[in-house]
Amino acid sequence: MNADSVWRDRLLALLRWLLGIRYIKFGMVGASGTVVNIAVLYLGHEYVFQNIEGAQGKPYASLALAIAVATVNNFTWNRLWTWADRVQQAPDATSTEPLAPTSLAMQLGKYALASWFGIGLQYVLTLWLAHSMHYMLANVIAIVIASVSNFLANDRWTFRKR
């Protein structure tokens, strides 16, 4: 087998893995997060931050709020559904005790850190694309681009197999 066919086989294996049920669940959670993101972005831009002066202040504030709310939404659903089989309930895997609030906060912190690159990418791409298209369309395009990096980071770190 030559090097090209090895890389092709690895790429095909990666694509099969990405298209597996977990990635579909992640995509569905991401779609719900997109709806949350767009709704909060709109509400923030049109109502919450309506009194912010200047053309730049309102999009920055409303986008930051939208990303934060959508991140908490996505963490919750990914934890409860996408990676439910991997969520560690307690140090003793046989325990039925619920996850301690500090452990949950640490996992949310890991989720946020793992997603930070995607969040930053989404933020920058949205603002950049908004110069040439409507800000809401720019946001949707940026979300799609950032989703793959978010999935890989959270699958390999936040919710990795124990």
What does the model show?
With 162 residues, the chain is an all-alpha fold. It has one domain (3-87, 98-158). It is 76% helix and 0% strand. It is built from five helices and no strands. It has helices at residues 3-18, 21-48, 57-82, 101-129, 135-158. The chain is globular and about 60 Å long. Residues 90-94 have low confidence and may be disordered.
SSE pattern: HHHHH
Task: Indicate the low-confidence ranges by residue numbers.
Answer: 90-94
* Total domains: 1
Percent of residues in β-strands? under 5%
Shape: globular
Percent helix, as a range, is over 70%
Rg over CA atoms, rounded to whole Å, is 18 Å
* Topology, number of strands: 0
Please tally the helical runs, counting DSSP H or I stretches of 4 or more residues: 5
The structure class reads mainly alpha
Report how far apart the termini are.
34 Å
**Average pLDDT level:** 85
